[in-house]
Amino acid sequence: MNYLNDLKTIINMNSYTKNKTGVDKVGEIFDEWFKDLGFELNIHNRGSIGNHRHYISACDKNSKKLLLLGHLDTVFPPNKFEDYSEDKEWIYGPGVCDMKGGNIVVLQALRNLNKKKIDIKNIDVLFVSDEETGSDDSKYLTATLAKKYDYCFVYEAAGKNMEVVTARKGVGTFFIDIQGKAAHAGNHYIDGHDANLEATYKLQNLVKLTNLEKGTTVNVGKIEGGIGANTISPHANLVFELRYKLLDEKQRVLKEIDKIVQTSFVKGTISTLSGGIQRDVMQTSQESLELIKNIKNITNTTLKHEERGGVSDANIVSSCGVITLDGFGPFGDGDHTLKERANKKSFESRISLSEKLFIYFIKNSDFKGA
What we know:
Blueprint: H1 3-11, H2 20-36, E1 40-44, E2 52-56, E3 66-71, E4 85-86, E5 90-92, H3 100-115, E6 123-128, H4 138-146, E7 151-154, E8 164-168, E9 170-179, E10 183-184, H5 195-207, E11 217-225, E12 231-232, E13 235-244, H6 247-262, E14 270-279, H7 286-299, E15 305-308, H8 314-319, E16 323-325, E17 332-333, E18 341-343, H9 344-363
Helix pairs in contact: 1-3, 3-9
């Protein structure tokens, strides 16, 4: 398990999304590791965030192409949570399951092919640098590159029972800015247009769009407004999130959001909407279920699968029509907390699974199960 030394190296390097220097240092280490395996490096330089990195193997134009997807960034700023530690069963540290651990699984599985003198071809790797903040920059690059591939495996953490992920909710973040009119609350109450009151009406109507039976939620996570107790509020704003499992639910809610924004419940207030969908829904497809069956034939491993409410860059690739499975990383929990950890045995399991799949993929151009 020498790869744990490599994991320790990158865990101990802070790669908070906004820490461009740190993210790039981690990326540069991966550059050397992938160059040693014969990959060509294509760096997509960025000014304020880490550079995105696309590692390209040899190409056989008559075969299918597989993209392995991960991200280099983590959620904790410098000096907050940076230590690597381990015991007999677990490894602890920032990104150990989300998702530096998954990136190491990719690397080690490919190294194992290299040790067996198997030429790596038609398997490329993309590591982006801003996934934890919504992939606002990288999602365009990912969507463009995805069109070149037939399949995509994403190395976010596995489920508790080593499940892979076939579906993730779509997510959007929105902002409503409300302009009212200030007035003295004692002397000129009727002259004001209360933006705070307008915000409360909008909040209640937004929350009513939630449909738990269909997996749709609308959450107003932040509300601000006003000047003080003696002033009719001249401004307010709402920050809210939409999550959905079904495309028709997305259309329903977006239509209703526009109605709510355009309606002035308090006379004289004017509202504007900004933001939008960050990652569209990843729905379980017949093709992804068939691929799971084929994986059992290829590896003699029965893969359980699940749907998750959280999002990842799998949403982006799946939305491009690429057959996508997520959750190929190690099992862990506590991600985004100071207790993040990953199970040691799950690394071995996922590396072995990936190695078998990669070998089969390289040797069988149709990538269909036996």
